User: What shape does this take?
Amino acid sequence: MKKLTSFFLTAALVLSLLAACGQPQATVPETTAQTRRALAYEGKSVTFIGDSITYGIGLENQTNQYWTYLQKNLKLGLVQNAGVSGSCVSTQGTRGFERQPLAMRVNSIYRADIFVIFMGTNDFGCDVPIGTMDDTQDVSYMGAWNFVLNSLKQRHPDAKVILMTPLPRYSKKINALDLKLDAYVDAIKEIAQVHNLPVIDLYTIMADEFTEANCETYMPDKLHPNEAGHELMARRIQAWLEENAELVLG
Assistant: This one.
C-alpha cells in the first residue's frame, strides 16, 4: 500500500511539473536601453567649467540652468558650477588676465568624476589668436586649450573630460582678427580629436533653434540663453550624454 501511495504521489508531482512547463512564465520587464544609459551617470560628481552662460547670466531664476536640469534628470551626485562671467580660455585677448581665464584657474578647480568644459565664445569676442596645435602654453587659443587639458589630465588622471563648443551667437559676427566664431568652434573640435576627448557640438546641435529669428524666444540679448534656452540646451546635452555613455565613461 505504501508503494502504491508513493507511486501516485510521484506521478502527481511529475504531472504538476509538466503542467507548469506549459504555462507562460512571469517576466521582469527589462530596463530600457535609454534608461540604462541615463543611469550610467547616477551618483557621478561633475564640475561644469564655463563662462557667463554656465555662471547663469541671462536667467531670472539661477536654479534654471542647463546643468541643474542635467543634475536632476541624470541623477548626478555632487555638481559644481565653475562658471566665471566673462572668462576666456586664454589670457591672450583684449581682456588679458581679467575675469579669471581658464588657463589661470584650471589648477584650482576641485576634483570630479567628470569635467564638462563649455567655453570659447569669449575668446572669439576678445580677439584671442587661434594659434596651432604645436602651441602647448597659453600663447594662443589652441595653446591655452592644450595647457588646460594637459593640466587636468596631470592633476586628475582618472577623471573624464567632455568639451562643448560655443553656442551660435548674434551679438557679434566677426572679430578684430577677421575671424568668425566658426574658427573657434573648429579649433575645439581639432583639440578634442588630438586629445581623444568627446565633444558635444552645440554650435551645430542648436543651430535650428538658436537662430537670430528665434532670439526673443531663447536668447533675448543674442548671446545668453534664457530659461527656455537653458532647458532646450539641457535636453540636447542629455540626449547626447545618454547616447554616448559608453564613449564618455569607457
User: Anything to note?
Assistant: The chain has a mean pLDDT of 89. Strands lie at 46-50, 79-83, 114-118, 160-164, 199-200.
